[in-house]
Amino acid sequence: MRYYNIHIKLNKMRAIIILQLFFFWFSNVNSQDCEAFVKIILKNINGGFYRDQTVKLTSKLGGTVFEMVSDAKGEATFKLPCNTVYDLTVSNYSKSKELRVPEKAGMVTERKLTYAPDMIAREKAFAMSAAEVELLDISVTVMPDTFFVKNAIMETPANKEYFSATHITLLNIEGKPLAGELLYLTGIKRGKSIKGTTDLQGKIFIWLPKGDSYTLNFKHHKNYAKIACDYSKGTSNISITFSYLGAKEIERRKKIEAERIAAEEKRLKEEEKKFTTYCKKLGITSEEGRKREIGRYIESVRSFNDTVVLSALKRNKWNDKLIVCDLTGSMSPYSAQLSLWYQLHYEYEKNLQFVFFNDGNNMPDSEKKIGQTGGIYYSKSEGKKELANLMAKVSSNGGGGDCPENNMEALIKGTKMAAPFKELVMIVDNHAPVKDIELLNKFNVPVHIILCGVYDRVLLDYLLIAWKTKGSIHTIEQDIVNIASMMEGQEIEINGITYRIMGGEFVCLTKM
What we know:
Radius of gyration: 28 Å
Oligomer: single chain
Strand order of the largest sheet: 18-17-16-19-20-21-22
Strand content: 25-35%
Shape: globular
Distance between the termini: 46 Å
Structural class: alpha/beta
Low-confidence stretches: 1-32
Number of strands: 25
Mean pLDDT: 89
């Protein structure tokens, strides 16, 4: 909203200021006061529903507890803060389930639990005594640390009541059997591993020692999933199916990506050489050359197809922004858009801050270390000329180098450099992978990622950052805000290409 000072009387100006403050406060309260609905339905496996059961939701962040009693239809409906996560327990249900609240105000989601009325009693009846648990643990300790399964079928152990008969089926992303896939299950408590390869139907049969939880691991993916085997008497059967890319497909995709990166690095070096020649011909510094380059892109921005920075910043009214922007490689057309946007809006943007990074200030690739690459610059909003000078300086200090960038280092160090902010926006090169993605587990500030150069696929690193930090993804046409609430196995479509979360990572379902 703009207010023009055209000889307005003092009392009218005061009234406008008061109204501005009111609307600013009211919009902030409403934006933070988001609530959605979760309906829990308790269904009897033999027919009918469970009434008068205590349904409890315990927040994973802070431990706040919400309780309700199910009605005659077995329903309990909660009104909860948007995009929060809870542990769901029910008085006559023996398990605990994770539940996520929708991310948009007023949305309703249903969670149905179908189980036997004697579920808890049966588990108690089959629970092992302390003496039985001790005997089982002693029996398992004599097993080898690693056991190899031949021909996808594990031999029956002598005391099979100490084991769960586990049937595992692997399917590829097309739903077909994943044959010949090496996998291994490792006990979290005991450390015992069982290795084997799936048969032609993508199946393998394993006897898992009871009383432990096991991580499912592959050649290229550790801790893909977990399988729990409780202490229990009698026979125990587990049958579970997993969807997975498979080692051969992963290696094929890695080869394609390596070839793409090599071609990209070759192109970047050719561009840098051309730019250096241009500066020498005119007798100007690299910094002056970058300033002129940004100026040319600003003048021709209307003829540029990918105006994603201008489009995303126009659609999304983020307040008190910290903008972190990649100024390496081919980012000049996009940094020019940021510069143009700033020229048009800097007078109205409150508490605007910037962090620019260039992957190490021309540091040799061999000397770059994860988390210590550098080339990170911070600035407050100080005016059009000052910002243009800083962008030219950062860009000229980091021309060459490899294709992957130090995005996570820029986020971690940049947020520490900045004064308090409300929204974190990152402008990135979709052609450049995140070289320090391993630092993601040290960062938890929601990131709104503006993707530059999305002509087909989105790099999976950026989807992972947005998902893990509860942020969002922005292309020239889409604002993907529901990525924050996605869970294992769910899918999302961007530019007509589908991605699925598998084993805690994003996988492109479209063939490469």
